[in-house]
Amino acid sequence: MLARAARGTGALLLKDSVRASGRAPRRASSGLPRNTVVLFVPQQEAWVVERMGRFHRILEPGLNILIPVLDRIRYVQSLKEIVINVPEQSAVTLDNVTLQIDGVLYLRIMDPYKASYGVEDPEYAVTQLAQTTMRSELGKLSLDKVFRERESLNASIVDAINQAADCWGIRCLRYEIKDIHVPPRVKESMQMQVEAERRKRATVLESEGTRESAINVAEGKKQAQILASEAEKAEQINQAAGEASAVLAKAKAKAEAIRILAAALTQHNGDAAASLTVAEQYVSAFSKLAKDSNTVLLPSNPGDVTSMVAQAMGVYGALTKAPVPGAQDSVPSRSSRNVQGTDASLDEELDRVKLS
């Protein structure tokens, strides 16, 4: 009798499962076991027991004892993580592009009671919910965002499934989109867009390289001009310093020569020595006539050296003649005036060199 009752119960369960939606529901990994009074429940499985047609308890893994005839194992739920392939389906994006998309769903039964009595086929229900949620979420995004925001799309689908499947005792752990198939024409346009974007980036990079090169060349020319101007400035400063030193040295030498000449003129026969020097210079200048130019200015008697020397000495005497009588005591002698005049001219020459 017990065997007959068990067979009748199994036949009823099989009929109920076949009537579910045209296919056998995958509610258990090990099928529906028979009530043999002493039962051993495997790990990570939950056996739902009914007593006289009503829910009685859920058998825990390990040893369990049931009453024959009265107790019946109605559902066997697997507590492991379940992987479900979501079939490929079509969806329309926000910019009216039709996509063919499929995915993988990872879920786990958290409450065996709700999974057994809350929905007829929990896995099938979750699969359908994943497809509808995927279509609704894709309708909110454009084609470009679908490829860029796959992670956010997966998270949105998981949240929507968990909100609806909470009363079924099922929790969706994650959802992953496997493949996204784009129509051929859209694929070609996307390829052209990618190529245009690459050409644009290449052109921008080339222009930036040209600009950097021009900037570097201009900066190099600028630095070269600055260095050249600084070098020219230093050269001019050095040249001016050298010329100033040379003028100062010449002035000092000339001043020393003037002092020596003045000292010589104050000695005995100084006037005769001055006359001799003037005569020598006259002869030397007369020998150079008409060498540099054809136009020559000559005195009325160029051959009379004596008269020229006398004329030069007369000029010299007029410059150094004595002052008016009565002031002789307060005015220094001619030789001392010559020395003082020489010193004054020397000082003026030194001041002019310093100012230059």
From TrEMBL:
Entry GO terms, CC: mitochondrial inner membrane
Every Band domain range: 36-194
Gene3D superfamilies cross-referenced by the UniProt entry: Band 7 domain (3.30.479.30)
Role description: Mitochondrial protein that probably regulates the biogenesis and the activity of mitochondria. Stimulates cardiolipin biosynthesis, binds cardiolipin-enriched membranes where it recruits and stabilizes some proteins including prohibitin and may therefore act in the organization of functional microdomains in mitochondrial membranes. Through regulation of the mitochondrial function may play a role into several biological processes including cell migration, cell proliferation, T-cell activation, calcium homeostasis and cellular response to stress.
Annotated organism of origin: Vicugna pacos
Gene: STOML2
Biased composition (Polar residues): 330-343
Family: Belongs to the band 7/mec-2 family.
Lineage, top ranks: Eukaryota, Metazoa, Chordata, Craniata, Vertebrata
Main localization, broad class: mitochondrion
Keywords for the protein's UniProt record, in alphabetical order: Mitochondrion
Membrane protein topology class: Lipid-anchor
This protein's name: Stomatin-like protein 2, mitochondrial
Region (Disordered): 324-356
Pfam entry (one): Band_7_C
GO biological process, one term: mitochondrion organization
Signal peptide boundaries: none
Subcellular location: Mitochondrion inner membrane
